[in-house]
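Trying the structure run again after the queue cleared.
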Amino acid sequence: MTNRNMRHASDGHDAQAETTERLAAAIHDGVSRVAERARPIEHTLREGSAVLGEQARKQEKRARIAVADHLEKASGYVRKQPLSPAMALAGLVGIVIGGLLLLRR
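Done. Tokens:
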């Protein structure tokens, strides 16, 4: 290759490198602009998520308290009226057995 041909080949390579660098810089700038625009949206979503998480924790706590209260009431009722649940259970068992005997015929 002559000096003249090497110079043209070198110029072509330099032009490609320069084009690649300009393209990379433009892409980088575009990504930076998108990131800037997305930052407030991300912040809003994170705040909303935190609020919803706190509401869910409060609701769970209220539900646990309600279940505990209902269990305590039921337990107290059974302690005060031990025969009532037993009689209800015996009646239910009798109905089931009677139904099974009728089906057996």
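The radius of gyration is 39 Å. Worth checking whether this holds up in the mutant runs.
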